[in-house]
Amino acid sequence: MRVAVIGAGGVGGYFGARLQAAGAKVTFIQRGAHLGAMRESGLRITSPLGDVALPEVVAREETEGLGPQDVVLVCVKSGDTEAAAAAAKPLLGPDTAVISLQNGVENEDRLAALLGPAPVMGGVAYMLSLIAAPGMIAHSGTIARILFGERDGRPSARGKAFLDVCVSAGIDATLTQDIDSELWAKFIFLCPHNGMTALTRLPIGPIRDEPETREMLAEAAREVIAVARAREIPLAESVLETTIGRFDQVPWEMTSSMHYDVTHAKPLELDWLNGAVVRMGRALGIPTPVNQFIYTALKLHRDGSGVGRGKGAVA
Length: 315
Known about the structure:
315 residues, alpha/beta, 12 helices, ten-stranded mixed sheet, N-(1-d-carboxylethyl)-l-norvaline Dehydrogenase, domain 2, 19% strand, Rossmann fold, 10 strands
């Protein structure tokens, strides 16, 4: 199977390396020092689930001339989705699957707006990993899971083929017929978790242990659920209890990608997480005061400079 990974960071680098180690023909699309290191000495993954060392990988900056792929994994930050769609265009064949493993619930629509609906499948990734050094991905914890499926819920040969390749690579993968619900189930956890850990610059443990911040965490989740229900997303009645249970079950020291970004002066995915909840809530007449507070408090940091020069999607 021919797989192109657009964005070989924590998520794309990890899953791409697992796929290549199992025999898939993987091409990594990346830039900067990470690209240079991959070209020179390959890609290394450190993980509690087992390390991977690939002394040689195919790594490129551009996609022109690469040819059609069976699967394109989009693993860039949500702010780079349109650029990723442009990079994916030359990779499309008659049955290419373009699968977003990004944060947020809007990336599939944004990809489909530029690529057409046919190539785009929905995808969800659960893991915490990052570029520890150029050419090296560090995965934390024992969760590295992906779910994907056709957006209309139909079974497809391309989905089954990719599932088989993932399973052969030892990846915890699920082919689902209700990807929208899976995207929102993650979003209900992701927005409060990313927002509150970034806002406080603390891991989840002290946030859930302090009654006032615990209530903010839960209320942020309630707001996301209200927006999802207004959009007629099928959710279990127990989704709030399930989400709070997840907050309680994750390791005390667990942070988030947005916590990492705000503490390392990197651009935030704020406009596609808490900002998206605010934006969708406004359009639907749903109040979202906690997510609005998180968005407002973090917006001065969203471009990575701390001085608020980034252009937002909410204001």
